[in-house]
Amino acid sequence: MFHQMLAAIEAVRERRQEEYRERRHPQLKRFTQQELNDEVCPTYKNWLIGRSQRMPSRSTLMGIADYLECRLSERNDILLAAQYLPEQPGWEGDSLRQALEQAKLTMETLPYPAIVVTHTLQVHAANELFLRLMEVPSLDTIPAHQRTILHFLLHPKFRANAMVSAEAHATWRQHVLYAMRHFKQQNALYQYDAWYQQFVKRCCDEIPDFQTYWEEACEVTRQEVAPTKMVFARMPTSGELLPIRIRNMMISVSSKTYPAVAALLPVDEAARTVYASLAP
C-alpha cells in the first residue's frame, strides 16, 4: 500500500513537471522531489530511499496534492492509493437533475425572490418575484454561460446603480468580493480542473474588471458572514428606484450543500414595502 501511494504521488509529480517543461510556472515551481520535500513534506526523501514507510495522514496527502496542483481525479488517485476515502464531487447526471428538480419545487413554495444555484454559482432557475425585483428577463433569454451570480453582480446595470452613492458602491463591491471568495471556497478542490480555469479565463475576457476583483478576493475565512446586500428596486406603482437592504438565505435540498435555493429576505422597511408591491 505504501509503494502504491508513493507511485501515485510520483505519477502526478512527473506529469506536472512535464507540463511545465517548456514554460515557466507562475510561482517558479519545479516539481522536483527535493522541492516537494523542502516545501511540503520533510520526510519525502526518506520515503523515496526506503528509510521510512510510515503511512502519512490524510492532511499530509492533501498538502502534497495542493503543492502538486492536483485535479480532483488526481487527488482521489492519491487518497485511494493510501486507502483513504476519496473527496466526493458534487452531484452529476441523474442525481443532479433530481436534486435540481427538488430545489425548483422548494423555490416555488417561497414567498420571497429566490433562485436555484449550484456550487459553480450557476443559476438554474428563478421565480417570478426574483425576475421582477432584479428587472432581468427570463433565464431562457440569457446565454447559458452568463447565468451565474457573478455575471449578474457585475452586469453594467447593477454597476450603474451602485455608483449613485459611496455607500451603495462600497456595499456592491463587498458583495462582489464575497461572492468570489465563496466561489473559490466551494470549488477549492476543482481549481486546477479544466472547467474551473476555463470559467475564470472566460470571465476575465468578457467582464470588465473581473480579473482585478478576482485577484483581490482572498480566500474566505470561516468567520466571514455574507454581507447585507443593498440593491435598487423599482416600485411598480410609481416607477421610483428605492435602495433596499436584503439578506441571502441558502436552503440545501439534499445531503450536499448544492444544489441550493438562495432566497432574498427583506431586511428593512423599504424592502418589505417593495416586496409587497411585487406580490401578485
Automatic annotation (TrEMBL):
Domain MmyB-like transcription regulator ligand binding: 107-227
Gene3D superfamilies for this protein: 3.30.450.180
Pfam families reported in the protein's UniProt record: MLTR_LBD
Protein name: MmyB-like transcription regulator ligand binding domain-containing protein
